[in-house]
Structure formats: structure tokens, C-alpha cells
Design a protein that fits this description.
heterodimer, A: alpha/beta, Rossmann fold, Alpha-Beta Plaits, six-stranded mixed beta sheet, four-stranded antiparallel beta sheet, 11 helices, 14 strands, B: mainly alpha, 13 helices, globular
Chain lengths: ~300, ~280
């Protein structure tokens, strides 16, 4: 694998749980850096990660992680990746430092190195002071951090983070996102962050793969996806008749995508370079007063909604 | 590097290749149980019959009046029989939670996200229980043999019964393997170690009880293959060259034991997975 190659590729991958197809002929790739795996609950995000780890054998298709075929060398892959599961997970009866060191040893680190790195990683994730406490006594937020610590202890080349901010309070969530961002941008760890929370992905990742109903709905750099092929405006108008339906029909007839959000407010998508000037021209022709016009900045939410077919 | 940046750094050392993960699991498991006082107490009590037998051997070799206590191959067979009660308690104490607790804490996906096969995981867990069971069966029996040699001051008994060492080893291995795989399979069926312990006790006592009822009705021991304890006893008698207690042919008993081990293996293969799939 050379620099710039995707860290994960999927070719026509289908995964089924009985009769239910969780992944439908997915073909996609994840470039190096931080990539968000975005989608509503049940979109197939966790299934994809579990298939990439070799937990689930796909019905068909081929997957490669860090240039290695998942079907051929799952152990080689697992030695180089870290996995932070979505659900609560720990080894019972251990304190945090023993647990993380144990995970390090399982990943192939010598005992002394595993223990040393366990201490370091626990301080890094903010559990330094609580590292001798039994993991079972930890709060939800602390359990999220320890899951990150066990995924990091062997210094993976690629991290799979499945809903890392689940159940965390706002402060803890911010700190977790900061850690994830730091890992990706300052520590050179590639990561795939699966989440249904748009702000989490937008804050930590450069690229995104949007999933819906087991298929990839959109993919690419977040900045590029947010770049519209036109502009969106929020518009408040006053019409001679009092209703805006006639004006909306005129806008649609002119090829603009628009919908009313209130009695006199609407969101209008103006394709191409026309922009506000085109809107003013149409309003003038309809003798409609434009009381308010504000360009609307597209968010990842817009990209997501568009990708999964929501208004 | 600024101080705040020192919390995480890349690892430059060597990593061991795959295939050794089970050793890590076994080592950690053994360490965990040795840290429990109740378990140490159980181990200590399980060696009490050994001390009684050692005194018996001492008396037989040093006091002419106690010559009738002289050890025979049957002594070792009986000793291993006596240890069965401790095998039961150690199996329940150690084995019930080996996989059940991991399932309760969702630890399987942690284990299997590391470079570790499912077979290594199972073998690592199996080795914990087998090591402790060997500690209450094979080890005291072998030490007892050494004690006999030491007190007698010669190898006469050992040479005359040269089969004892392999017999103790083979019987202990069969017993420990059967019990450990069965318990591990039961442990993989539930998330509650308490429930697993009860289930194990039920299987042992239920099969024995059914055989007891059938024996009371038919007055024949040919149905002893129903009871796992009886099968083990039958195989033990064959290995130690003792008269058989039951009419069941010993190959049938052996097949029952092998069948139990195979079924346990199949259960473990199905239950130990990184993801629980409910189809």
C-alpha cells in the first residue's frame, strides 16, 4: 500500500442477516485521514465495520483494509487496526490499566511495553487519575474513553470508531471529539468514525461516506459535498395578493427549487451563477416585494438530507 | 514536543506474531483466580486428601503394623475418584464465568478485534480451567507417586507399576478435557455465570439420577452410559487396569465422552463470535 491509496476499499459487498440485507452491493473507498461514516440508525454503518473486521462474512464482494484482503488475512488486519465498539464493552474484573495493558498484549505488544503504553494512553484519553479503578465502576463517559484507550494501545494504523460519543454529556462529548480530531490531524492515525450525529462527523472528519438503507448514498470530501452547484437563499416576501403560491409557481416555472417554510418565508435554490439577481428579476416581474434575502450556507445536514432523500 | 502533546506517541517497538494470544488469556485468567482468597482456600482444601494419603503411605512404608495400608494401583485410582468432588467445585468456580462473563460485558468483540482467532480465544479459556483442574487431579496424584518413592527409599513399587504414571496422566487428561470443554460450552450459552453453574450441576446430577432410576427398575448397569460420571469411572477403571464397575462396554463409555467433547466444540464454534447475529 502506498501513500494516498485508500485505507479501505469495498467492492460489491453484500451482507445479509437472514433475509434482511444489511449491506446492498456496496462499492466504496475510504481515503487516509479522518473519514466519517454517516447515516441514520440501521443504515448499515456498524455492519460495514464488523464486516471489515472479519466478524461478519459477506454474502459476496471483496474488501481490503490497509491493502490487505479481509477474507485472506483478517488477523494481519486486526493487528494493525483498533476498534472501538458501539456498545459497552470491557473485560470483567479488571482495573483500567490492567485492561488496557491486557488488550495491548493481545494485540502483540510485549508485556512491559503494553503496560507502559497503557499508562500513556489512559492519560491521553483523560483517565489517568482513575486508571486503578475497576472498569465496571466507570460512568458511561469513562467507559467510552476506556474503549478508545484499548483501541489505541497497540498504536493502530487505522481506527474504527463506532458512535464514540454515545451517551456522553456535552462536555465529555466535546472532549472526545477533540481527542478524535487530534488523533486524525496531529497524530497521523487514520480513522473511520461511524456516527448518526452530523456535527460529530463535520467537526472531526475531512471526508464522509453517507449511507442509507444499506447502500452508499453519497461520498467525498465534506467541503466538496457542501459546495452547491448553485446557491440557497432564505427569502421573505410581500405579495400584492397576500399569498405566495403564485410567486412560488413562477419560481418553479423558472427552474428554481423552492419551498415555503412559513407564511411569507421560503427557501430557494438558484442553480448556476444567477444568484440573487435572478430572484430580484423574477420578484419584480411578479410585482412582489422582497423584504428579506439571506444566502443560506449549506451544512453537512443539507448534504445528508439530500443524500438520503429528505426535504 | 510540547508537554501537552506527550500523552500519545507512536509505538516503535516490535510486536509478536499471531498464535500466542491464548497464552496471554491463560496467564491473565490464572493470575485473576490466584488473587482470590476463596479460590486459594478451595485449592488448599482440595489437597487435603493428598496429605491423608501421604500419611497413609508414610505409615505403610515405615511402620510394620500399618503394612496393610501399603499403596496399590487401586490407591491411586481411588485417590483420583475422591478428587472428583473438588473437580466439580473448581469447575463451577472457575469455569462458569469464563465465557459467560465475557458475553455479559460484550468482551468478545474486544477479544476478536485483536489478532486472535476464535480457536485461540477458546483454547486460552480452556487452558485456564484445565490448568486448575490438573492442579487438583494430575499434580497431587503424581506428587503422591513421588512421595511413595521417597518414603519407600526405592523404586520397587514404581517399577512394578510402571503404567501408573501414564495412567494418571491419561485419566486426568480425559477427565479434565471432558469436564472443561463441557463447562466452557455451557458458559458460552448464557450471560449469567450463576445460571451456568446451576446448569452444570443439573446436567451432572440429572444424568446420574436418571441412571439411578433406570438401575432401580432394571437392576442392570448396562445403561450406565447415560451418566457422565459413570462413563468417566468406567474409562478410569480400564486405564488403571481395575475390574469394571458397570456392564456398559468401555468403548461405549469412551464414545460418550468423545461425543460430549465434540458437541461442546460445536456449541463453542457457534457461540463464540465477534457479533451476535439473530437471523
Amino acid at each position: 500500500m502506498t501513500e494516498g491509496d485508500p485505507v479501505v476499499t469495498l467492492e460489491n459487498v453484500s451482507v445479509a442477516y437472514g433475509k434482511h440485507l444489511a449491506l446492498r452491493d456496496v462499492t466504496s473507498s475510504f481515503s487516509s485521514g479522518a473519514v466519517g461514516l454517516l447515516g441514520p440508525n440501521g443504515a448499515g454503518k456498524s455492519t460495514m465495520i464488523k464486516a471489515l473486521l472479519g466478524f461478519i462474512v459477506p454474502e459476496r464482494g471483496r474488501m481490503r483494509v490497509l491493502g490487505v484482503d479481509v477474507a485472506e488475512s483478517p488477523l494481519e488486519i486486526r493487528a494493525r487496526v483498533g476498534y472501538m465498539p458501539e456498545s459497552d464493552a470491557h473485560i470483567p474484573g479488571m482495573n483500567a490499566v490492567s485492561f488496557v495493558a491486557y488488550c495491548g498484549e493481545l494485540a502483540g505488544l510485549p508485556g512491559v511495553d503494553a503496560m507502559q503504553r497503557a499508562h500513556e494512553v489512559l492519560f491521553y484519553v483523560g483517565l489517568g487519575e482513575a486508571r486503578y479503578r475497576n472498569v465496571e465502576t466507570y460512568s458511561t463517559g469513562m467507559k467510552q474513553r476506556i474503549k478508545l484507550a484499548q483501541a489505541l494501545v497497540h498504536d493502530p494504523d487505522l481506527l474504527f470508531l463506532d458512535e464514540p460519543t454515545n451517551g456522553m454529556d456535552p462536555k465529555g462529548r466535546d472532549e472526545m471529539l477533540e481527542l478524535v480530531r487530534d488523533l486524525a490531524h496531529n497524530k497521523g492515525v487514520n480513522l473511520i468514525l461511524s456516527s448518526h450525529l452530523l456535527p460529530d462527523v463535520e467537526y472531526t472528519c475531512d471526508q464522509v461516506v453517507v449511507m442509507d438503507k444499506g447502500a452508499v448514498a453519497a461520498a467525498g470530501p465534506i467541503a466538496a459535498l457542501k459546495q452547491p452547484r448553485g446557491r440557497v437563499y432564505e427569502l421573505r416576501v410581500k405579495t400584492p395578493t397576500g399569498g405566495i403560491e403564485a410567486f412560488l409557481q413562477r419560481l418553479r416555472a423558472a427552474g428554481l427549487d423552492c419551498h415555503a417554510t412559513d407564511e411569507d418565508v421560503m427557501r430557494v435554490f438558484v442553480p448556476g451563477e444567477g444568484g440573487a439577481r435572478e430572484l430580484f428579476a423574477l420578484a419584480s416581474a411578479e410585482r412582489v416585494q422582497v423584504r428579506h434575502l439571506r444566502p443560506s450556507v449549506p451544512t453537512l445536514e443539507d448534504v445528508f438530507a439530500h443524500a438520503v432523500g429528505e426535504e | 514536543m510540547p508537554i501537552h502533546d506527550q500523552g500519545y506517541r507512536r509505538y516503535g517497538g516490535d510486536k509478536t506474531r499471531g498464535g500466542t494470544g491464548w497464552i496471554v488469556i491463560t496467564r491473565a485468567g490464572i493470575r485473576t483466580f490466584f488473587a482470590k482468597r476463596a479460590f486459594l482456600g478451595l485449592l488448599l482444601v482440595s489437597w487435603f486428601p493428598f496429605f491423608v494419603r501421604a500419611v497413609q503411605i508414610y505409615a505403610a512404608t515405615n511402620l510394620p503394623q500399618a503394612a496393610f495400608l501399603a499403596p496399590t494401583p487401586e490407591t491411586f485410582r481411588q485417590f483420583l475418584d475422591q478428587q472428583q468432588i473438588f473437580v466439580f467445585f473448581v469447575t463451577v468456580y472457575v469455569g462458569a464465568g469464563l465465557i459467560a462473563n465475557d458475553r455479559r460485558a460484550n468482551a468478545l468483540q474486544i477479544y476478536l478485534s485483536k489478532p486472535l482467532t476464535r480457536a485461540e480465544y477458546v483454547f486460552g479459556k480452556l487452558a485456564i480451567l484445565m490448568a486448575f483442574l490438573a492442579l487438583v487431579t494430575w499434580l497431587p496424584a503424581i506428587v503422591l507417586l513421588i512421595v511413595q518413592i521417597s518414603f519407600a527409599g526405592n523404586f520397587t513399587f514404581f517399577k512394578n507399576n510402571i503404567f501408573l504414571f501414564p495412567a494418571i496422566t491419561v485419566f486426568s487428561f480425559v477427565q479434565v478435557t471432558m469436564v472443561a470443554t463441557a463447562m466452557l460450552a455451557l458458559s458460552s450459552l448464557s450471560k449469567s455465570s450463576r445460571y451456568v453453574g446451576i446448569l452444570y450441576a443439573a446436567v451432572i446430577f440429572f444424568t446420574q439420577a436418571i441412571y439411578g432410576v433406570l438401575y432401580a427398575v432394571t437392576r442392570s448397569t448396562s445403561l450406565s452410559w447415560i451418566s457422565f460420571s459413570a462413563n468417566l469411572s468406567q474409562i478410569g477403571d480400564v486405564i488403571f487396569r481395575q475390574p469394571l464397575k458397570y456392564d456398559t462396554p468401555w468403548p461405549v463409555s469412551l464414545m460418550m465422552i468423545a461425543g460430549l467433547i465434540v458437541i461442546s466444540g460445536v456449541i463453542l464454534e457457534r457461540r463464540v463470535r465477534g457479533v451476535e447475529v439473530v437471523a
